[in-house]
Known about the structure:
Shape: rod-shaped
Transmembrane segments: 6-29
Number of helices: 4
Strand order of the largest sheet: 1-2-4-3
Radius of gyration: 42 Å
Mean pLDDT: 87
Distance between the termini: 107 Å
Keywords: Membrane, Transmembrane, Transmembrane helix
Helix content: 40-55%
Largest sheet: 4 strands, antiparallel
Number of strands: 4
CATH class of the largest domain: Alpha Beta
Strand content: 15-25%
Structural class: alpha+beta
Amino acid sequence: xxxxxxxxxxxxxxxxxxxxxxxxxxxxxxxxxxxxxxxxxxxxxxxxxxxxxxxxxxxxxxxxxxxxxxxxxxxxxxxxxxxxxxxxxxxxxxxxxxxxxxxxxxxxxxxxxxxxxxxxxxxxxxxxxxxxxxxxxxxxxxxxxxxxxxxxxxxxxxxxxxxxxxxxxxxxxxxxxxxxxxxxxxxx
Length: 188
């Protein structure tokens, strides 16, 4: 009977130990599962951050590569308050080409339907006097200015009283008058 009692006690102890081992194994399994889920969540976050960083690096590279183009476009638009400087430059270009220039009209259009965003159009109407070649050179230099110029109209008329004077192309004197209408982009 003693052996029987001893076997019963050993069986109970072994049963309790087996149950405790299974309970411990369950908690270890839960801990490993939780750590594995955390690991995969961190791995996904890291992968997402890495993709975002790669995208930002590519975007920064594109901006850096296009920086000179952006600067060129930005410089082709008259800055806020730069009208006086532009008109002074326009008059000096005319003077360098031997022309007399008179600005007859200057307006700034900022219609939000036609010109959305921070840019409007400075509309200029001017009259020039000089030789045919001087007017032509002025027009060429106007188109070559660093700002964006759109010439809408350019009329050149011979104003000499003696049109049969024999001067080829009107190269002598101020016998040609130009009427010029053009637009220039300007920040609002």
